[in-house]
Amino acid sequence: MIRTPRRDGATILRAKAAVLTGKQDAAVAALAPLLGPHDPDSAPADRFLVDTALLWAAQRIRDHDAPHAAVQWCRYAHTTATTLHGWQHPTALRAARLLAQVHTARGEHLEAYDAYSAVVAALCRTDLDGACRAGAQADLAAHAAGRCSEAVAHLTAVWDSWQLDHDPTDRTGLFLLYRLTAMLAACGRREEARRRFRDAEPALPPPGTPARLGERRHAAAVLDDASRAHDLVCPHQRGARYRRRSAPAAAVLPIDRAMLLP
Ligand SMILES: [Zn+2]
Description:
single chain; 262 residues; mainly alpha; binds zinc ion
């Protein structure tokens, strides 16, 4: 039987310090020997190993890619944290979110959808805003997998219901709207995206301020992610390509951020 590694708190602290100073490679190098003796499929249920695995896996997401080992260690962390603490424990939720991010980075969108759905199920009775945010991420994953109509319809329903009992200046609204409008725009439904963005206005900082610029950058990043290679899977874009072939003058224009973003 493989024993758990000794609790090397100094190594963890060194790795966290390296992350804070942008030295991800140094963090990975420090943590790897702690995981090395273990197979993620059969590693013992150990809190220290869960924390090490999550910190290590988080550093392996780079430029829209991640190794399969990051998936394996996130799965280990999620299963083990659920066994040790329960499926609604913050560590189990952190592991599920990171698993979803790793799958997204690898282009495994349906797997990311499942992981975000686990977060929604865990939060829906205790943290409605958190569940809405995780649900919006699940919808983005479904959208990236080409389930566009289903994803847009679901997030539209969440947004419509969320508005009923929340202040329009609540920032969770922006989180939902950025994702809903990004999906609409990526599918080529730009007029609907523009109309939806008007709902964001009460929660946005005043125009021309640095805070407003920060929001614009945030919304642009969400839009870029939702648009990346989306024409390859999108049923709406397939229709647009067919129309372009038969009527070149009606070509679909690239997404114009200036027209869409707050
Ligand atoms: Zn689409």
